[in-house]
């Protein structure tokens, strides 16, 4: 197992390099001179000259890449074109906000999805199964940005019981653990949880159904085990797959929260990205994408290692 | 599957071509007996037809604005589904909007099906260093959550239908290449493919006769399930201001511009999303039904 884990960790290096190449390329696929993507059009000539030297736009691309990578590794993701603030500083504020939203949504999706999927798989073909399966397919088919708007219409506009926007009262960006702030988390988290909930429901249902069709389950019943104890065996067998899916979903939500954050004005990375797109602030776009993708790479690694640790079959091979 | 083909009296089992038609006949029979798949297949057809024939079906000009008819509710005379924030007929805009939304949802999957399928078949068939090079490159794209990758590329390229289609194509190539690669690798090792090679069949013949027959079913089913994701993502890009630009009618963009109206006329504001939802749900259920009818495991 150790050999596998070491191999898996080493594999992160080429993948991360690939990710940085794509992130680096973003500045160069943007239309126009790459310098325009880094400074505002109204920047004074000496600033432009200095930046040209700093970024080395006169040098060949591989040199530029190495230089950019070296800076990125030390935490320097460049400055925003709009307000000249370091991108890393904006990210330090935005990433925790997105993490909180994404983790809450994944937990909601996991609990609901595991229950629904488990019931559907266990009572295959019954009305319980039909309802849960229908719920699952609805979850993966609903455009979540629309669902967010519908929830705002119902709970904020019609009934006025939950806030429609922001992370705290009066549009404040800071988070505190109290009821007024938690109320702001409810709608965005539910909206974001719908997709993982649908996917986890479908995965759990398929996994449970597959395990139930295996012979060892019959053997467990035959030796007189109670239903509850058989269930325990099924859960143990389903856990690795479900954990893997859940981990991946958290990663998808980190990137996918942009639409929901836009709907709810949630001050996270998605909001940052949206603003960067709107103002054509390529350094911010690039930095945010790079950080989120690296989160996803590390999360994938953690999921793989955890899966190996949980599943004895994988430990042996 | 094989037993049904053998039992089918009209099938000559000695011929490969005929027995494969037997497979499709089985699939068709299964679909015919599945009311859910039939129903949603019909809905998909209806949505596509209404988009194609939008100019004939639309009761009004989708671009014609009116100052006095802004945000009229459902059932207004002459405007069955009301009017939007600049007084344009919602029904006409939804019908026309389907054209761009479906186009932007389906085209990336089609492109990715061809490119990803070809890359996957090459990687799986040639193997070795070629496989490594192609599949490891795909892994890099996999390191991005799909929404993020689409937004990154279209965000850098800027708004526009072409850019949105391009970015979504890049998102869907890796998963399709993976499916094609894994099926090809499995098929390549099968005994009958070895036999075909031994009896003198060239690489191209083996790919055309044996590999494609096996790969197409799998990636086609996988691609239909991607259409639903693609439609949601494409409209999502337009919702963010990437993709389609105003005043073109497109569901995601309409949802965005109508957000200001949620306090005035919430029903109208939610309508474009209903269109996206129904379309994506129908494609999803159709692909689920086809998958179980074709008995493909991915």
Automatic annotation (TrEMBL), chain A:
Q: Which UniProt keywords apply?
A: Cell membrane, Membrane, Transmembrane, Transmembrane helix, Transport
Q: Which GO terms describe its molecular function?
A: dipeptide transmembrane transporter activity
Report the membrane topology from the UniProt record.
Multi-pass membrane protein
Residue span(s) of domain ABC transmembrane type-1: 95-307
Q: Give the family from UniProt.
A: Belongs to the binding-protein-dependent transport system permease family.
Identify the Pfam families for this entry.
BPD_transp_1 (PF00528), BPD_transp_1_N (PF19300)
Organism, scientific name: Acuticoccus mangrovi
Which cellular compartments is it found in?
Answer: Cell membrane
What is the name listed in the Swiss-Prot or TrEMBL entry for this protein? ABC transporter permease
Highest taxon listed in the record's lineage: Bacteria
From TrEMBL, chain B:
What does the record say about its membrane topology?
Answer: Multi-pass membrane protein
Q: Which residues form the ABC transmembrane type-1 domain?
A: 98-287
* PROSITE patterns referenced in this protein's UniProt entry, alphabetically: ABC_TM1
* TM stretches of this protein: 38-58, 100-128, 140-173, 219-242, 263-286
Please cite one Gene Ontology biological process associated with this protein: transmembrane transport
One of the record's GO cellular component terms: plasma membrane
User: Which keywords belong to this entry?
Assistant: Cell membrane, Membrane, Transmembrane, Transmembrane helix, Transport
Q: Where found?
A: Cell membrane
- Matching Gene3D superfamilies: MetI-like
Q: Which family does it belong to?
A: Belongs to the binding-protein-dependent transport system permease family.
Protein name (database record): ABC transporter permease
Q: Which organism is it from?
A: Acuticoccus mangrovi
